[in-house]
Amino acid sequence: MVEDADCDPTGGTPCDEALRAAAADNTLLKFPEGTYKLTEQNVVLGKTNLGFLGEGDVRFTVPGGFNEKVLVVDNGTGLLFENIDLDLTADGATPGLHFGADSDLEVHDVEFVGQGIHPDSDPRDGGNGNPDVTNAFTPIVRSPDGTGNVSNVVAKNDGLMGAYNAGDGRVGVWIGVTTQGTITLKNCRFEGFPNNGLYCSRTNGVVRIEGGEFSNNDISQVRIGSEGSYVDGGTLTVDAGASASPNPNDMLNGRGVRLEVGSLDTAGPEVRNCDITIADVPHSGGGVVASGDIGSFAALDTRINVGPAGVRGVLAKDPTGGSYTTDPPYDGTLRNVSVTGAVGDTAAIELRKRPESIIDGCCVQTDGDGVEIVDSDGAVVRNSTLNVAGQPVVTENATIDTAAIANGGGCPMPNDATASPDSFENTLTIEAAPGADYELAVSGTLESNASFGATDDPNDELTGSSASGQVGGGGRDSYTYTGTITKLLLHGGVNLYHDGRPVDPADYLPNTVTIESQSSATYEITTSDGIAKSEAMGAADPNDSIGGRTATGQVGKGGRDSYAYPGEVISIDIDGDATVYHNGDEIDPNEFGVGGTLTIEGAPGADYEIEANESLKRTTAANATVDPNDSVSGQRATGQVGGGGRDSYAFTSEITRLVLDGGANLYYDGKPIDPADYLPNTVTIESQSSATYEITTSDGIVKSAIIGPADPNDSINGRTAAGQVGKGGRDSYAYPGEITNIDIDGDATVYRNETVLETPEQL
Model-level pTM? Predict the structure, then answer.
């Protein structure tokens, strides 16, 4: 049966009684678009196949100070709650939703709107005198064979950090011992809760967390522990600087994933394919933390980055204390886990009393130690990269096996980035044929050494973080450095080694360019700081030539040539039909050789003139079109855009002229901008009473919001802007040249580049 809930959609009359009366077996209650007022706890028990469905924008609201579960539906089977949001914007409101079923629980597309802070909570009070605060969401599946699916549930709580309330602070999702079945949480988002984002560890059921974002929750972002439970593909972030909580620096323990079960005899949770970042937090136990009450656990194909010193990427504690009851084995399995960042005087991965644990195919790149194994005989560390400033493997009272450990190379970071392999001390060796010159520069320190058969050549020069020299006839020069490689000029054929291993320069230089042709094309590429042959994207052609900053070659019949470089591509000339890739992504080659791309989007009939102090190039970046009426000649371009059309230009230096006739929006590298960020000068007119003005410039003028919001009512015509300000208002403009005339009628203050001028004539 399908029927309306017969509630007031304007929120004028409470819906509690009507909702309870309408909830019946085999019934789908539809809520037309609107706001529905709930003023008390509503309990519906023992129903079969009951559904609540919002049609359009539907919200349940609660009064101020409401601190209980506003809707409890349980002890039945077959329950749907979909497309209904819970509004907790009333002062001090901390309501929750409780949905339980033997099986077939479905909750989808729900948002908790507002900030759930109880007015009597006190950060760091330890719970003394604090009230119990209702958890946001409690899903339950009571039958061991039952299932529940929860998707797209969002709660941006932005609560008080430190208000853990001795365990009674507000939790995002609570799944406890009443759940015996399997609950899957998919693509959910929970942030800013003071007592765990997802607290789903103390259950005999199975909790599967798939995808989703969990950030800036105190205690942990995700907490699981039972056998068969996992978090897969989640993004977990702790960053006090990005938190919307009122007191993010009172966070007690900003962990990523906490694995624990309390007093339950169950274990075996897994962390899979996750991106975990601990960026800025006063205290954190780590990215993945196995508590003392957890036995077996696994972390697989996961990237962890830690910022604060002393924070471990993975920590498995001694399984000996508290209410620990789990039977052996007490072990951990880490496969294809990457840990990057600054751990300070500790280890990136630490396992304690976890005999026969396995660390396989992992990558660690930190300023501390790599892996620390304590009281864990039979543990294995193998097939892993441990590029660390400290000891790769540290043992204490443990006999372990190690095999195939590399000590150089970059490690994957969260969100598909890759840490520079040069963040910590590394050794670069240059081996060359006769007469090969080179220049090398790094962002950190640089020292010559005799590693890997290198010779000390008196003709080489080392000054600060730069070096130049010559190697020939199979000779080698080696340098130990910190930071990143910022310059690498090679004249003649060379081989490169990192920490004694032959490398593809693309692994140690930040950028690649690849040329591909299905027919035939020749090319010449010039860079600012050097270029080296690479095998990126499967390229392998030894016949092309490199000379310092320039590479030339030919591709055809589906072939590819790739190069790595540390700076910028200054120019790229291609003769023939070719596809160009930058860092693996196909691009318009006109986008190379630029300091940026400027895009003009205009209303009908918007004319423009642009000049740069170096060359301009047409490009189709930012969905721009190539218009035959536009003209480009060296450093100058003119054209017209209209009706939302766009013209884009790549430039290598500064804009020296920008004349716009008619309304236009400006974009830099595809993002809307304030022109003041890219033009050298600004002028601002401010008046406490009223003033009109007219400003004329030599090379164009554009509206800006550099001081205060822009006023769309003022007019610009080429080199002249005219308008009016009053009652404390401000109008700002950016311009590339000089102001040739300014007329002000009324009392006004004039700023040039945010500095007050005594008289307008100073412009």
Answer: 0.60
